[in-house]
């Protein structure tokens, strides 16, 4: 496995370091290439996504990304976030999987990632009016919806498609395409929901939900809400996948500049993102499950401040590594090495 590692900004390098420690504990041969990205790359090279970084990401089996941006670049042109949008487009990772796991909650948000309002035409007219355009082609909706149907089929067989079809033309397209596609998945129960009322469902009854599919901006907001319900952004991982090429695996949280350098950042989301890379980039669900279990152990025994504890970022990483070493018996290590 060749892993392109983009630590990025703020707490990104701190939490990424712990994920790499976990990776080093696993019985796998992985080449890790660390590359400049985001604000750090903007400072060094004047470009948040240098050509060398993009080329290395294309050549990798997976991209592990820390965090991007911060207030120090608020006035920069381009902003660090432009690198993230550019990377997603370049790798065409259109399906953003954001699981929310906590207690009885096992919810997966599938967010369309390379279309919609965030990627549409924008600008300022002569009269001072500012505009951002939301556009979707039917093929963009179909491919992410198909991915969501497949995921629902492999889970509990329930899918909610979220839109704003009572107001937006793009949402009416979204609902029409998803409805037509449902005929290919008679074993999946589909229902449609409006984004505003569905947000109440996520807040009050997340344990009743299985898979949710929605467009870019709605998915951004709803997945953060689901993460809050499931214990906070410090626990929320994500996988951004396309039909071919490397996926991007990153925590949902941002760069958290207010705690950068304090040693208090929770690396759980970053380590869980590594687990998603093991599952989706390597097909090693066995090792992904072991890593996930080790994170759960550390959350129970060595929580960081955001989870009501006092552990530092490194202490939490120590706890995950210790749990991994207990879980990976000699036999399991030999077996895993044979399969790798």
Question: Summed up, what is this model?
Answer:
By secondary structure, the chain is an alpha/beta fold. The chain has helices spanning 12-25, 38-45, 51-59, 80-91, 138-154, 169-181, 195-204, 216-229, 268-280, 285-301, 313-327, 330-339; strands at 2-8, 31-34, 62-67, 95-102, 105-112, 122-124, 130-132, 158-163, 189-194, 211-214, 237-241, 247-251.
Write the layout of secondary structure elements.
Elements: E1 2-8, H1 12-25, E2 31-34, H2 38-45, H3 51-59, E3 62-67, H4 80-91, E4 95-102, E5 105-112, E6 122-124, E7 130-132, H5 138-154, E8 158-163, H6 169-181, E9 189-194, H7 195-204, E10 211-214, H8 216-229, E11 237-241, E12 247-251, H9 268-280, H10 285-301, H11 313-327, H12 330-339
Parallel strand pairs: 1-2, 1-3, 3-12, 5-10, 8-9, 8-10
Antiparallel strand pairs: 4-5, 4-11, 6-7, 11-12
Helix pairs in contact: 1-9, 1-11, 2-4, 5-6, 7-8, 9-10, 10-11
Can you give a write-up of this model?
It contains twelve helices and twelve strands. With 340 residues, it is an alpha/beta fold. It folds into two domains: 192 residues, Isopropylmalate Dehydrogenase, CATH 3.40.718.10; 134 residues, Isopropylmalate Dehydrogenase, CATH 3.40.718. Helices cover 45% and strands 19% of the residues. The longest helix has 17 residues. Strand 4 and strand 5 form a beta hairpin.
């Amino acid at each position: 496995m060749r892993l392109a590692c983009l630590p990025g900004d703020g707490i990104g390098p701190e939490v990424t370091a712990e994920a790499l420690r976990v990776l080093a504990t696993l019985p796998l041969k992985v080449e890790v290439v660390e590359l400049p990205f985001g604000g750090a790359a903007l400072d060094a090279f004047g470009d948040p996504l240098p050509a060398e970084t993009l080329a290395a990401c294309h050549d990798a089996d997976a991209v592990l990304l820390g965090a991007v941006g911060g207030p120090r670049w608020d006035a920069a042109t381009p902003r660090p976030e432009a690198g993230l949008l550019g990377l997603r487009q370049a790798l065409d990772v259109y399906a953003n999987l954001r699981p929310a796991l906590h207690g009885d909650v096992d919810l997966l948000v599938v967010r369309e990632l390379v279309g919609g309002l965030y990627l549409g035409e924008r600008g300022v007219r002569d009269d001072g009016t500012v505009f951002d355009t939301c556009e979707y082609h039917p093929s963009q909706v179909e491919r992410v919806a198909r991915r969501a149907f497949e995921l629902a089929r492999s889970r509990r067989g329930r899918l909610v498609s979220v839109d704003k079809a009572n107001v937006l033309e793009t949402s009416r397209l979204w609902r029409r395409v998803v409805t037509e596609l449902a005929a290919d998945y008679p074993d999946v129960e589909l229902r449609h929901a409006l984004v505003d009322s569905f947000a109440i469902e996520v807040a009050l009854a997340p344990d009743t939900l299985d898979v949710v599919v929605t467009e870019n901006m709605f998915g951004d907001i709803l997945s953060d809400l689901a993460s809050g319900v499931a214990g906070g952004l410090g626990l929320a991982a994500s996988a951004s996948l396309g039909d071919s090429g490397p996926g991007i695996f990153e925590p949902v949280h941002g760069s958290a500049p207010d705690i950068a350098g304090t040693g208090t950042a929770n690396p759980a989301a970053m380590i869980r993102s590594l687990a998603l890379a093991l599952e989706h980039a390597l097909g090693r669900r066995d090792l992904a499950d072991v890593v996930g279990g080790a994170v759960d152990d550390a959350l129970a025994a060595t929580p960081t401040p955001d989870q009501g504890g006092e552990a530092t970022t490194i202490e939490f990483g120590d706890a995950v590594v210790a749990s991994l070493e207990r879980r990976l018996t000699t036999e399991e290590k030999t077996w895993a090495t044979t399969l790798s």
